[in-house]
Amino acid sequence: MVRLDSIAGGYRRRVQFQQLQYFVAVAETRHFTRAAETVHVAQPSLSQQIRALERELGADLFLRARGNITLTDAGEALLPLARRILADADTARHEVQELVQLRSGRIRMGATPSLCTGLLPDVLRAFHDRYPGIRLMIEEGGSHDLVRLLARGALDLALVVLPLPTPSPALTTVELLREDLVVVSSPEGPAPGGPGRRTVRVADLESAPLVMFRHGYDLRELTVAACRAEGFEPDFAVEGGEMDAVLGFVRAGLGVAVVPRMVATRAGRGLRVTPLARPGLHRTIALAHRSDVAPPRAARELQRMLLER
User: Fold this and answer.
1) Nearby residues of 35 by Cβ (< 8 Å), 6 or more positions away
2) Quick check: do 117-174+285-308 and 179-284 share a fold?
3) Tens of pLDDT along 219-260?
4) CATH 3.40.190.10 is the classification of domain 179-284
């Protein structure tokens, strides 16, 4: 049902959407039988609905002479309004169908910088290839910032590192993967832990200057906590960078860094990658969204692809 201003009395009544379709068909064909064929309804039913519309509006819409159907002044006034309502409804229906069929829309995705470098590129490429009409809007930040943006409704989904800095029942998290951390260093510099070593212990980092991420970075907190658990404070050669900056400083020989295996693998040449000895260091990646609002259809499809990767 749609609301339409009455042509006759200036008051508002309820007018059926279908009645407007029938009215426009008669106005355009100037013939009740042909109009009925156009909208695929029996002619008596169409005539009945037109009469009901005229009663609702309190005005005749057609002058009915034998073999000659013309619009009254009220009909002439209603016709552009009815056409606009029908056109708007058709546009709305088309846009909803586009979204439902994932031909248009947007996803607001948050991820930590290391996940933007390591996990997301391949998944987003596969999603974009399948749904090229969906706009992908990526917000890069630490887990704490992403949780705040999710709670505020500024993101649909976020890839975060567990445990969350501020756990909230307002968020739903689903574990995605458990990722190993590795040590990266410059091939020209000394191997961490000594020459010929295939693995390096956390304790070996006491004698290695570290290239360290900025405060609030999940990897900084994890690395520092691991060093302290081994009884020493790490020595920072340089600190304060994001992922790309840290990798660049390591390539330049300023020190070593602890990074996710996926990032080290994707980083390519210019880095020596050494696994950590068992039990090693790991982090748990989760997909988070608000508990009280289901993600949009497109975001749910991206969520499915991430969970099935």
Assistant:
1) 22, 25, 26, 28, 29, 46
2) yes
3) 898 999 999 999 999 999 999 888 889 999 999 999 999 999
4) yes
